[in-house]
Amino acid sequence: YYVSTNEANYNAWAFDRVKMLQGIAAGSIKATGFADNFLMPADVDGIVAPPAGAPAIYYTFLDNSFHGGTDRLELRAFDVNWVTPASSTFTTIGSPAVAAFTYTVCGFFNLSCASQPGTGQQVDVVSEWPMFRLAYRRFAGHEALVGNFTVPVSGRAAPRWFELRGSGTTWSLFQQGTYDPDATVFRFMGSIAQDREGSIALGYSAMSAAVSPAIRFATRLVGDPAGTLGSESTLIAGGGSQTGSDRWGDYSALSIDPADDCTFWYTNQYYTASSGSNWATRIGA
């Protein structure tokens, strides 16, 4: 099992899944020292496993003005050796350039960002971190990773999404897009996945001074023009605002149903009525 942590640095961990499932003492291996941004480990979708011996892939996003270099994704490979843990490696394997963006929407760790109706309380769009998940899928002819993070567009938040293709320690950008279908709403807290055909869905929170916090999504078929998503749909419209805190859930997850490898299941938070913290959860397919 691969996870990441925010400690003195941004670290990666591997846990011995085989022993954990047997209920016996299990070891862990920690990769340390990455200081630039939080790391998101890839999560496998579909029934076809990665190639034998393939390393785990982690990614983050880096901005030229804040982190140096170019606007890019940063990919690392975690090659774990349980026999000789000291021989495990955690190495940078690529830095594919992406369309220009500015790191954070309202300023570095400025948590008062997205507006809501009927309250001066604004909420955090969490634009410092990669969003859950980095979804891996192995197709008949290629391997793919899809992910998203939040960027500013004209003073609002919008999901920047991407698809990488490659294998092992060699990956390149296949397509990317920033989803901002109008000029009025903050869109953030995204989660993305690919189905067995290669079609993509992206779910997210949406709100503004005129739109109560809602759950929305957009999709694309595998044959659609690269870098595009279709029309926006609403999973549930909000009925109120969060009045007591700037902390917006951090919890948004899009997954593929293993029964058909085709149905997208999405969950996020919203409000049925304005309150300090009495949020609700909606799950939709």
List keywords for this structure.
single chain, 285 residues, mainly beta, eight-stranded mixed sheet, four-stranded antiparallel sheet, 2 helices, 4% helix, 44% strand
Task: Provide a compact summary of the structure.
The protein has 285 residues and is mainly β. The protein has helices at residues 17-22, 64-67, and strands at residues 2-6, 10-15, 28-34, 40-44, 56-62, 72-79, 89-94, 134-138, 143-153, 156-167, 170-178, 186-194, 200-207, 214-220, 233-236, 253-256, 264-270, 280-284.
Please provide a written account of the structure:
By secondary structure, the protein is mainly β. The chain is built from two helices and 18 strands. It has an eight-stranded mixed sheet with strand order 7-6-5-4-8-9-10-11. Strands 12-13-14-15 form a four-stranded antiparallel sheet, with no helix packed on it. Strands 1-2-3 form a three-stranded antiparallel sheet, with no helix packed on it. The longest helix has 6 residues, at 17-22. The chain is globular and about 60 Å long. The mean pLDDT is 96.
* Spans where pLDDT lies below 50 across 5 or more residues: none
Which sequence of SSEs, written as H and E, runs from N to C?
EEHEEEHEEEEEEEEEEEEE
Question: Sheet bearing the most strands, described?
Answer: 8 strands, mixed
Instruction: From the alpha carbons, calculate the radius of gyration and give it in angstroms.
Output: 19 Å
User: Helix fraction?
Assistant: under 10%
- Biggest sheet, spatial arrangement of strands: 7-6-5-4-8-9-10-11
Kindly report how far apart the N and C termini lie. 27 Å
Tell me the total number of β-strands: 18
Oligomer: single chain
Q: Beta-sheet strand percentage?
A: 35-45%
